[in-house]
Amino acid sequence: MPIDLSEVPTHELMKEIQHRLDCGNKPDKRVILIGPPGCGKGTQSPRIKYEHCLCHLATGDMLRAAVAAKTPLGLEAKKAMDAGALVSDDIVVGLIEEATQQPECAKGFILDGFPRTVVQAKKLDEMLAKRGQGIDKVLDFVVPDALLVERVTGRWVHPGSGRSYHEKFAPPKVTGVDDITGEPLIKRKDDNADTLKARLAAFHSQTTPVIEHYAKKVVVLKADRPQDEVARSIAAALA
């Protein structure tokens, strides 16, 4: 079905056309984002995606989409999940391989949430090596644990849209309600200090070896700075 562009302002259309033309001249990049909950990856990844014309691959979203679409890998994943087992690394790498062959990944990708272990990193490297490719950069978002606890425990979310607020850093206009809909905000059950501290301990123990595995490609980002400063550091790292 044809898309009706009559309501789209001309300058917006021209901006998008120019962006796509610019994308054709961008170098390929394959980037891994590593960072604990609340580190700012979710804020920075859309900027990286747009600036470098990459696709954003979050393994949790990919798994859910594959299961819903009943793809062969999705059916394998569902079988494991229904049995209460972890989805195998081979299935996840297979999903990444399929996704990176889509047109939107032509210039490369941002991987978020994978690899979490050295075994996964090696499987990912092997898959890319078969295509004559490899990971270019690993962006390590470093934030002191104490600040992460403050960031996450103060977070409130609008369940319908996923919009998030913070009671200190980004409060809603009216306490407890979404700015746009006026609907009540909720606090996720995992957004508490005890749960977060356990998650942080697991994160550090799992990902430290992954960072060591990619040592020559890692760029450490001091991610507790203002968003624009972090963005400038990322731009320099990926230049």
UniProtKB/TrEMBL annotation:
Keyword presence, Transferase: yes
A GO term for molecular function: ATP binding
Domain Adenylate kinase active site lid, first and last residues per copy: 155-190
Record carries keyword Zinc: no
Domain of life: Eukaryota
Protein EC: 2.7.4.3
Catalysed reaction, written as an equation: AMP + ATP = 2 ADP
SUPFAM superfamilies in the record: P-loop containing nucleoside triphosphate hydrolases
Listed InterPro entries: Adenyl_kin_sub (IPR006259), Adenylat/UMP-CMP_kin (IPR000850), Adenylat_kinase_CS (IPR033690), Adenylate_kinase_lid-dom (IPR007862), P-loop_NTPase (IPR027417)
Keywords, in A-Z order: Kinase, Nucleotide-binding, Transferase
Family in the record: Belongs to the adenylate kinase family.
Alphabetized PANTHER family for the sequence: NUCLEOTIDE KINASE (PTHR23359)
Function comment: Catalyzes the reversible transfer of the terminal phosphate group between ATP and AMP. Plays an important role in cellular energy homeostasis and in adenine nucleotide metabolism.
Family matches, as HAMAP family: Adenylate_kinase_Adk
The protein, known as: adenylate kinase
Originating organism: Volvox africanus
